[in-house]
């Protein structure tokens, strides 16, 4: 099987490759299949077992891609949403996905593509499953366009799975950026802490991606979040506990809005998201509890 992976050097991509390289018994292990990493430029830190391709060289690839795992995308929360930044976020998600579809000579059998719970927009009210109507706004518009570009692969030959990700917790990613403030005792509830915090352990993200590739029952859109509903202040308390630090120092909403502008809504607002379709699918979460998830991450840090 030939697997094309975008975002191979990102947080989720690295975790996925680490799992496939360490677990030789997995059906998708590197020893059993060929992995092509889609990169902007050749990366010296990627394993020699992985063949690197760019958007320029992808159309020349003779091998038929069986699976496209689409993890690429600039970090939506790393910079304020200026018009320039919004364009970059769109390019790295929608434009790239469209370009891959146009470049492949043959349609893949499976496409697993990321989206985000930002699809549901900014809201504190109601519970959102995959069928709930979203709120409008930039995050929703971006995710909607991203999902549409992935769904364009869908045909009688191609099964498409889209995961709307919550905050991915692991050794890296968002948690790594929060770690130092919490270690110094400066972590605490954001904007009162009553907004909902939809999260997922990195190992469950990798498990869900691999399940989508190997199990043909997976199709369509899924919320990839843990089943436990927690508020942001509960997360702060659990993370402080995992680090052995207090989590009392609040961060006011006005300060975040001053620093981040429109993007602050990702931190100050948060709807209740439930993984209705994953649970119906019988997905077995390895880390359904926030306290145990954070303790495991810190124990292995």
UniProtKB/TrEMBL annotation:
Q: Which domain of life is it from?
A: Bacteria
- InterPro entries attached to this UniProt entry: DUF1731, Epimerase_deHydtase, NAD(P)-bd_dom_sf, SDR39U1
Where in the numbering of this chain does the DUF1731 domain appear? 251-297
- Where the record annotates domain NAD-dependent epimerase/dehydratase, the positions are 3-223
**Can you tell me which family this protein belongs to?**
Belongs to the NAD(P)-dependent epimerase/dehydratase family. SDR39U1 subfamily.
Q: Which PANTHER family match?
A: EPIMERASE FAMILY PROTEIN SDR39U1 (PTHR11092:SF0), SUGAR NUCLEOTIDE EPIMERASE RELATED (PTHR11092)
- Annotated protein name in UniProt: TIGR01777 family oxidoreductase
